[in-house]
From TrEMBL:
Species annotation: Hominenteromicrobium mulieris
Source organism phylogeny: Bacteria, Bacillati, Bacillota, Clostridia, Eubacteriales
Residue ranges of domain Orn/DAP/Arg decarboxylase 2 N-terminal in the record: 39-297
Record function comment: Specifically catalyzes the decarboxylation of meso-diaminopimelate (meso-DAP) to L-lysine.
Record carries keyword Lyase: yes
Catalytic-site annotation from UniProt: C362
Binding site for pyridoxal 5'-phosphate: G249, E291, P292, G293, R294, Y391
Protein name as it appears in the record: Diaminopimelate decarboxylase
Database matches in InterPro entries: Ala_racemase/Decarboxylase_C, DAP_deCOOHase_LysA, De-COase2_CS, De-COase2_N, Orn/DAP/Arg_de-COase, PLP-binding_barrel
Length: 432
């Protein structure tokens, strides 16, 4: 019935998350409200961990791509579960450090890291900088020399595989703003330069082939392509790397029909392919990183709203307005993303009412879902949108000077605020 195990329905016919009644949460904290299940987040972390244990002798780690949902508490939770963190900006790095995460477990990504961000990363001692381009390599080398340190780096490679949802293609595509292309020799030349640098230590290679991937095959192909290059570096440059980062993009369920691969299974086929390739090349198997973002937090989260006006336009459609919108969930406006919506206080009633869920921003495109089936709505009902844990809060804005809602974490029937809701004073804090 639901997209994730953390959702259920209680004797009152109310939607629950991790044992908490969502209608009571809405009363207690107000709406709009983001709710996240700590139980579910921890369970997903453990499933990724067990994937390495079961299939790869524990010789790897999942990194949480913090851009999916970044705040101090999530950094603490995932690192407690043994994951490393991936950050892509000075602000995400600051958040992780403020949460007390050991810098050695932080990997710094991004396609245009500023000088200020690079200095900050070096001064904090992050474990690994994933280098995107040659300018950046030169800047890191220079900064490291000035500081008298040797910086561990990986290099972001475009493996020429593009995977999204149920399809993946070998594109050989070099049209991406991220990383070094394999096909035209750019990556090999860049690796040569990196190996020659005195103040950087190249430890591995990285790739990231897409998002919402529902298949293990593209990851296997990526591993094969990357290992071939990894071995070329070994044989032609005499440089032995130790790490291979296969990126993130593991699919999650927004709708019941989405067929996500169980997270504990991702490493099985990859492991086989890696062992086979390394045997063929006569090299040691690398330490493997994967970088799930969305899948760690997405299904653990839902958003609660109060139904406001309901406008039926005869022979057209019915708009159900909520006290939120694109400022706190821009994903439908950005990419027509699917979501499961339901009336949280009427879960057991038939979902036979076709509604378009509209936000309160001054944009016609400010919709959360169009023509979706929900229980018959009435003013004052609590509408829940499921699977909003990823790329909702982290993409939220103050458009129309709306205040970002609070985030409440639930665990075993208990709830607590982990990010306070913004106030009007917050909105003018930086105005002069
Ligand atoms: C966005 C991103 C991820 C995480 O992707 P998900 O689809 O959220 O799993 C991992 N690695 C890199 C480099 C990314 O840019």
């Amino acid at each position: 019935m639901f997209v994730s195990d953390c959702y259920n329905v209680n004797e009152k016919g109310h939607l629950t998350i991790s044992g908490c009644d969502t209608v009571e949460l809405a009363e207690k904290y107000g709406t709009a409200l983001y709710v996240m299940s700590e139980d579910e987040i921890r369970s997903v972390c453990r499933r990724y961990k067990s994937s390495f244990e079961r299939h790869y002798n524990g010789n790897g780690t999942a990194l949480y791509a913090s851009k999916a949902f970044c705040c101090k508490e999530i950094c603490r939770i995932v690192t407690e579960e043994g994951l490393d963190l991936d950050v892509v900006s000075g602000g995400e790095l600051y958040t992780a450090l403020a949460a007390g995460v050991d810098a050695k477990h932080i990997h710094f990504h991004g396609n245009n890291k500023t000088m200020q961000e690079l200095c900050y990363a070096l001064e904090s001692g992050v474990g690994d900088i994933v280098v995107d381009n040659l300018n950046e390599l030169h800047r890191i080398e220079k900064l490291s020399a000035e500081k008298g340190v040797v910086t561990s780096i990986s290099m972001r490679i475009k493996p020429g595989i593009d995977a999204h949802t149920h399809e993946f293609i070998r594109t050989g595509q070099i049209d991406s703003k991220f990383g070094f292309a394999l096909e035209n020799g750019e990556a090999f030349e860049a690796v040569k330069e990196a190996v020659a640098c005195e103040n950087v230590e190249l430890i591995g290679l990285h790739c990231h082939i897409g998002s919402q991937i529902f298949d293990k095959a593209p990851f296997v192909l990526a591993a094969q392509v990357m290992l071939k290059f990894y071995n070329k570096i070994h044989t032609e440059l005499g440089k032995t790397l130790t790490h291979l980062n296969l990126g993130g993009g593991f699919g999650v369920k927004y709708k019941e029909a989405d067929a996500a691969v169980p997270y504990e299974d991702y490493m099985s086929d990859v492991s086989e392919a890696v062992h086979a390739a390394c045997k063929e090349y006569g090299i040691q198997v690398p330490y493997i990183y994967i970088e799930p973002g969305r899948s760690i937090v997405c299904e653990a989260g839902l958003t609660l709203y109060t139904v406001g006006d309901i406008k039926t336009i005869p022979n057209v459609r019915t708009y159900v307005a909520i006290d939120g919108g694109m400022y706190e969930n821009p994903r439908y406006a950005l990419y027509q993303s699917d979501y499961t919506c339901l009336i949280a206080n009427k879960v057991n009633e038939p979902a036979d009412f076709t509604a378009t869920i509209a936000g309160k921003c001054c944009e016609s495109g400010d919709l959360i879902q169009e023509n979706t089936l929900i229980q018959k709505p009435e003013v004052g009902d609590i509408l829940a949108v499921l699977s909003t844990g990823a790329y909702n809060y982290s993409m939220a804005s103050n458009y129309n000077r709306n205040t970002r809602p609070p985030v409440v974490m639930v665990r075993g029937g208990e709830s607590r605020v982990i990010i306070k809701g913004e106030t009007y004073e917050d909105l003018v804090r930086n105005d002069v």
